[in-house]
Amino acid sequence: MKFIFAIVFSVVFAAQFYSCSRNEEKLTTDKQSQKKDSALSKDELSPVLRNSSVAGRYETESDKTSFREMNADGTFNVKDFGVEDKGTYTIDNNVINFKYVSGLITNSKFDKDKIIDMDGEVWMKK
């Protein structure tokens, strides 16, 4: 009986020791990851900086009730032809890629303070 108890105790102790050492490895990895996350390079910040130059409200001359609200965090809200939608966007050179919540993906040209959509409609920053 003492022999079985000794084996069971050894197995439980070994399992507990292994579990603790794995947690210590995870904590070390998590700390290294946090240090890496807190030190962002210029390349990693550039989408945010790029988005901030696009951020703002855009309207068309033809329909003052339509708008595109571009947020610096890469999200947007749009109202066009009375229909409202939202989503996310990315910028690649002077092209804005829109991904709507509905699943629609479109792109537009960005030029200083205006967005030119696929139909050639010009949206001016206000």
What key phrases describe this protein's structure?
126 residues, 2 domains, eight-stranded antiparallel beta barrel
Question: Could you explain the architecture of this structure?
Answer:
- The chain contains two helices and eight strands.
- It has 126 residues and is of the alpha+beta class.
- It folds into two domains: 1-39; 42-125, Beta Barrel (Lipocalin), CATH 2.40.128.
- A hairpin with a 5-residue loop joins β7 (114-116) and β8.
- It is globular and about 25 Å long.
- Residues 5-9, 11-15, 17-28 and 35-49 have low confidence and may be disordered.
Question: Distance N terminus to C terminus?
Answer: 84 Å
Helical amount: 25-40%
Determine the number of helices (DSSP H or I, runs of at least 4 residues). 2
Q: Unreliable runs, pLDDT <50, ≥5 residues?
A: 5-9, 11-15, 17-28, 35-49
Counting helices, strands and paired strands, the structural category is alpha+beta
Q: How many domains would you count in the coordinates?
A: 2
Overall, the morphology is: globular
Q: What's the CATH C level of the largest domain?
A: Mainly Beta
Q: What is the alpha-carbon Rg in Å? A: 27 Å
Give the averaged pLDDT, no decimals.
74
